[in-house]
Amino acid sequence: MTLLHEEPTIVDVRRAELLFEEARQRRRRLRTIWITIATVAAVVLVSIGLTVHLFSSLRLQSAALKAQPAWPEHLRTGASLAYAFNDLQILSADTGVSHVLPLPAPYGSAGDLGMVSFGHSLLLNRGDRAWLYSVVSPGAPADLGRSIGVFRGPKSGEAWIWSQPCIPIIGCANYNASQMGDVRLIDSVGRQIEAPVALPGTAGWYPTGLAGSAGIVISKSPAYGNNEEEVWNPLTGQVVRVFKDANVIGAGGNIVVWTAAPANCTTRCTVHISNVRTGSEHTVKLPSGFTTTGDAVISPDSSTIAITAAFGGMSHLSDPEAVLLVGPDDLVARVLAGSEQATNPNLGPMALTWSTNGWLFSFTVGTTKVDAWRPGESRARVLPRLKLPEVTHLVNEGPSLTAL
């Protein structure tokens, strides 16, 4: 594979932007919404009178319509959340108290508002640059240079920054730049750990935004048709695992979660869970009527996988989604009680994030509430004191929520 691109043009630049946006949207919005609103009415005439009965066949409907149980007074998450949209807010999940910071730059390109929390730091992508904040004492961020994407590093105190040297300059000709740019590894104080590593090949391999201990997930353009994705380790230059005709929807530690492409199943849907270190692989059947919506997150200890999924049938929810949990014991996908949420396709699907102390948070663009759950709890519950800003429409990027 050659790592040089002779003459990057503005077409290449915009293509890089579009590819990253496609990967981001495909990972978070790739889904098929199964919605059928139906009413079965049986009119039974008994002696003198007329009675009308309405039945529902969806087993989740009753749970979806019940009011959420109150948050127990003794329960504390001890977690903070970072929310980026019109500004950057650091919020306490328990008290709702927020510290508001202005965004450090105007809108840039497709990777804007991507965030990674690592160590005691928060890395924000904004205005085609990477900005490093201290979580302990939020203030003015450090400018870490050009960036069109940020994602987790191989260790807990590290992060990757993806940059394309020519992207801000019309007619740029950098003969030392690879076609899709390079990635560089930093620590939690912003120090560069290794020299930048060029993305492989001239075929248009680009990061999808997912990464784990073994490497970063890259996809080969075009990102339609027969998808080809890889786990690639920039530190060794090795391809750790190849996924043919597949969509990787989650990565963390040595675990990779993926679905067969195209993900258009309607019944008997499955996800595949691979350990790229041991080589083990499991196929997990989803509950009947569910299909993945493109977001899977692995708990910090790699014991639990949470997956967003849409469900069909009769429901009073609009475009309903729920969280499916896959535990370490039996590798069975189960619905997380209380996690059902209505979604608005014009705004975006449900999104998930794990805190470093083991709490799972979920939110949906267009709602102001955040649900929380941790292993051992029987159900997800709405955080009682935290409310996100109301979002009615999107202009450039959708809001991001990341647990710290």
Give your account of this protein's structure.
- The chain has a single domain, classed as 7 Propeller (Methylamine Dehydrogenase, Chain H), CATH 2.130.10.10.
- Helices cover about 5% and strands about 40% of the residues.
- The chain has helices spanning about 10-30, 60-65; strands spanning about 40-45, 50-55, 80-85, 90, 100, 115-120, 120-125, 130-135, 140-145, 150, 160-165, 180-185, 195-200, 205-210, 215-220, 230-235, 240-245, 245-250, 255-260, 270-275, 280-285, 290-300, 305-310, 320-325, 335, 340, 350-355, 360-365, 370-375, 380, 400-404.
- The strands form eight sheets. Strands 22, 23, 24, 25 and 26 form a five-stranded antiparallel sheet that branches. Strands 5-4-3-31 form a four-stranded antiparallel sheet, with no helix packed on it.
- It is globular.
Give the tags.
31 strands, Methylamine Dehydrogenase, Chain H, mainly beta, 5-stranded antiparallel beta sheet, 404 residues, single chain, disordered N terminus, 4-stranded antiparallel beta sheet
Distance between the termini: 39 Å
Indicate the mean pLDDT.
80
Q: Main beta sheet: strand number and arrangement?
A: 5 strands, antiparallel
CATH class: Mainly Beta
| Number of alpha- plus pi-helical segments | 2
CATH superfamily: YVTN repeat-like/Quinoprotein amine dehydrogenase
Q: What fraction of residues sit in β-strands?
A: 35-45%
Number of domains: 1
Rg over C-alpha atoms, rounded to the nearest angstrom? 22 Å
The amount of helix comes to under 10%
DSSP strand count: 31
The class by helix and strand makeup works out as mainly beta
By CATH, the architecture is named 7 Propeller
Q: Could you name the CATH topology?
A: Methylamine Dehydrogenase, Chain H
Low-confidence stretches: 1-13, 28-65, 173-177
Give the overall silhouette. globular
